[in-house]
UniProtKB/TrEMBL annotation:
Keywords: Lyase, Metal-binding. It comes from the Bacteria. It comes from Corynebacterium stationis. The keyword Transport does not apply. GO terms for cellular component: cytoplasm. The keyword Magnesium does not apply. Gene3D superfamilies: Phosphoenolpyruvate-binding domains. One of its GO terms (molecular function) is metal ion binding. Belongs to the HpcH/HpaI aldolase family. It holds the Pfam family HpcH_HpaI. Residues 22-248 form the HpcH/HpaI aldolase/citrate lyase domain. This is 5-keto-4-deoxy-D-glucarate aldolase.
Length: 259
């Protein structure tokens, strides 16, 4: 008798059902060991970053399998808002996707369509061949697939801030993740994520997304600022990266003994 397979809850469901802000870490090294250390440390979610890291589809699949042994919810950030790529990442078993550089509602609608099978969307059908359905191990996957996935889109430009309410209102967008670094750059404030104008843009986005009834999160490696965002109502935050933590710790050791 086949073993019954149930997929875990997606990221949006985890955040919605939590009574506190979900704290996460980037997995940027591609290392399964680093991913396991981070997952076992107690983070609520892990951002497997295929946008700024040297990942192929195989690397992401291996990282998802590693993290699956732990309670942390994996979110895969894809490199670009592309229908074919979204299909591939969903098929390899990424249930929760983050799409970068979404500047308007039309781009958000494109991402939503790619997340779902017809008639709701345009996702190509190959579930029997894919890890997404655990190779046909999930009963009636095709009809239940939309319930198993979640979509987070990134607001990380001045244009996106202006359109935040419209982006958040798109049916099928579950959450908005603000990228202060690119936002600051788009405002002519490269490297100044805590500039008052950037913070004001973040506040504007927070309000627009909450008014739309959607989840809002943000990236902040400055831990005091991360806490301030949580206090301001962020539902989820990313507070560091595996490579950043390793670099900081190893350099501190060298400074202590050789400085």
């Amino acid at each position: 008798m086949p073993f019954p397979v149930e997929l875990p809850d997606n990221f949006a469901k985890h955040v919605t059902h939590s009574d506190s802000a979900q704290v996460g870490l980037f997995i940027s090294s591609g290392s399964e060991t680093n991913a396991e250390i981070a997952a076992s440390a107690g983070f609520d979610w892990l951002l497997i970053d295929a946008e700024h890291s040297p990942y192929g589809l195989g690397t992401v699949t291996s990282l998802l399998r590693t993290v699956a042994a732990y309670p942390a919810t994996p979110v895969v950030r894809i490199p670009v808002n592309d229908t074919v790529l979204i299909k591939q990442y969903l098929d390899l078993g990424a249930q929760s996707l983050m799409v970068p550089m979404v500047h308007n509602a039309e781009q958000a609608e494109k991402a939503v369509a790619a997340m779902h099978y017809p008639p709701r969307g345009v996702r190509g059908i190959g579930a029997a061949l894919a890890r997404s359905s655990r190779f046909n191990g999930v009963d009636d996957y095709l009809n239940k697939a939309s319930e198993t996935v979640s979509l987070t889109v990134q607001v990380e430009s001045a244009e996106a801030v202006e359109n935040a309410a419209e982006i958040a209102a798109v049916d099928g967008v579950d959450a908005i993740f603000i990228g202060p670094s690119d936002l600051a750059a788009s405002m002519g404030l490269l490297g100044q994520q805590q500039h008052p104008d950037v913070l004001a843009a973040v506040d504007t986005t927070f309000k627009a997304v909450r008014d739309a009834g959607k989840l809002v999160g943000i990236n902040a490696f400055n831990l005091e600022q991360a806490q301030a965002y949580i206090d301001a109502g962020a539902s989820f935050v990313c507070v560091g990266a595996d490579v950043q933590q390793l670099a900081s710790a190893t350099r501190a050791l060298v400074e202590k003994f050789k400085g």
